[in-house]
Amino acid sequence: MSSLAEIVEAKVGLDTGAVDHLQAIVGDWQILADLSFADLLLFCRDDLTDQLLVVAQMRPYTAQTVYHDDLVGREFTPDERPRVDRAFREGRIIRRPSPDASTGIPVREEAIPIVHQDEVIAVVARQANLSTVRSPSALELNYLEIADVLS
């Protein structure tokens, strides 16, 4: 499997500072996945095709994963990932108003822009599998609140 830096260097025109910024985020993002009870996908734009390229992926230890397959290196069209595309364009967190159940699994999705030197260089898609959701405890609600602050 290629590293984040290798994938970004091959397909995305980011400078070394931007790549270092992404590496720092990915280096510590297991805690965000666990507090969010959600999978995290890091998207960059492919320079040549303008597609949305998955450059890193993290699964939560605290919840069921949405993605059993490794998506690193996979490209999506902006139409396939409309919230990710909007987060790139608008530079703000985009939340899906209701869970998406199109794959048979209800998924809550948020797209969180990553800004470096006043430019959106990537977007983290935070996707929680809601198929086994029950009423959350006070501790779980605190975890979710902390995850929102970290995001």
As an assembly, this protein is single chain
Cα-to-Cα separation, first versus last residue: 27 Å
| Shape call | globular
The count of strands amounts to: 6
Give the rounded overall mean pLDDT.
86
Structural class based on helices, strands and sheet pairing: alpha+beta
What's the story with the biggest beta sheet?
A: 6 strands, antiparallel
Strand order of the biggest β-sheet: 3-2-1-6-5-4
Beta-strand content: 25-35%
Radius of gyration: 15 Å
- Extract low-pLDDT stretches: none
Count of individual helical segments:
5
Instruction: Specify the helix fraction band.
Output: 25-40%
Give the topology string: H per helix, E per strand. HHHEEEHEEEH
Detail the topology: elements first, then pairings:
Blueprint: H1 4-11, H2 16-27, H3 30-36, E1 39-45, E2 52-58, E3 75-76, H4 82-90, E4 94-95, E5 107-116, E6 119-129, H5 138-150
Antiparallel strand pairs: 1-2, 1-6, 2-3, 4-5, 5-6
Helix pairs in contact: 3-5
